[in-house]
Amino acid sequence: MENNNKIKIGLIGLGTVGSGVFKTLRNFDNVEVKSIAVRNINKKRDIEGLDSSIITDDAHKIVNDPEIDIVAELVGGLEPAFDLIAEAIKNGKHIVTANKELLAKRGEELFTLAEKYNRVILYEAAIAGGIPIIMPVKTILAGNKINHIEAIVNGTTNYILTKMDVEGAQYSAVLKEAQKLGYAEADPTGDVEGFDAAYKIATLASITFNKRIKIENVYREGITKIRAEDMKAANDLGYKIKLIASAHMDEDGNADVRVHPMLVSKKSTLAHIDYVTNAVSLSGHPVGSITLSGPGAGEFPTASSVVGDILAIAAELGKSEYILPMMRCRHSEDAKMINISDTTNKYYISINAKNNKGVIGKIGTICADNDISLASIVQRCVSDDNTADITVITELVKEKNMQNAIKLIEQDGNKVQSLIRVQV
Length: 424
Known about the structure:
Blueprint: E1 7-12, H1 16-25, E2 31-37, E3 55-56, H2 59-63, E4 70-73, H3 81-90, E5 94-97, H4 100-116, E6 121-122, H5 125-128, H6 134-138, E7 145-152, H7 155-167, H8 171-180, H9 189-192, H10 195-209, E8 219-220, H11 228-236, E9 239-249, E10 254-265, E11 277-285, E12 288-295, H12 299-316, E13 336-337, E14 344-354, H13 359-369, E15 374-382, E16 387-394, E17 397-398, H14 399-411, E18 415-422
Parallel strand pairs: 1-2, 1-4, 2-3, 4-5, 5-6, 8-10, 10-13, 10-18
Antiparallel strand pairs: 7-9, 7-11, 9-10, 11-12, 14-16, 14-17, 14-18, 15-16
């Protein structure tokens, strides 16, 4: 009869993460996976000792099973995940999820519902795979006013950029190779255009700043336009190019949250986070700056976070009427968001210019007219077609002034090949 004391878990999804969670949970005596929902019940599963009788293709059975205490949603996407989680909460179940898109787009509704039914939603695995970040921010770092986050939270893009850097290869060639190796999906849009990183930084900024960050206000730019030439130029100037998800809260409580490629100084920690490794750097008072890094995806790293959340809930069940108060959603107001055009940044610009006399002077004049100071300007080789590559690094500039200058430089018959912001 001792079996009845175990806390019953329902898993929705038995893909990479679900398999890792199932295999890991078997090592714990106080929990038992009672049921697992999958899309295709006939698919062969490479999991030793998996009892096929606990597998169903009807996820509603799990969220309606009165014996199940905790539901782990590991399928991703908005539907049917949202409806299943909402139904599970109404049926008195606690939730663990790795679903960053759902949290970024509809988290507010789910957290409100969870509070109404006195249930918790934990989502450690949704931000940076195996790196513990949500629980540290909500517990051990709770005494800090954290005002700045810079993070590499997408392994696919970091892998591609690292390979481009190491091999001097162009984006399209490296993407193909990454797809072959399974690091990039057949349709890589979610990763390479920065959607995945945007969902993650929106959620991380919400809990760190204690204000809701609306995903539609997060500026997003991917890595598809980064060229091998930019990588080389960045290296020569003492930088690496990374896809950075950042969030900053100014003194007046305005939030600047965005995802875009950045030239990161080789002196900074994030410049040396390579391949599929993820890292999150937080700055605040009194802690100063800390960086947490580790595997941001994969079967067991992600399972580590999911299982940690499941065990945190399991340890509390039956001990209190209101479990894990520190881990609950505690913000109800939206952050005031700063539009990218009102931000101030440093820029790296690569211009392919006609090699006419005074071309650098003209570019200098356009920049001066737009209140742009240049930190450096380098003219590289003149090509057969009598054009020169000019690389410019600016001082701090208003984004809208920069965009205006770019238009004028191009009207002058030059081609701006790259515009990448530089870490300040």
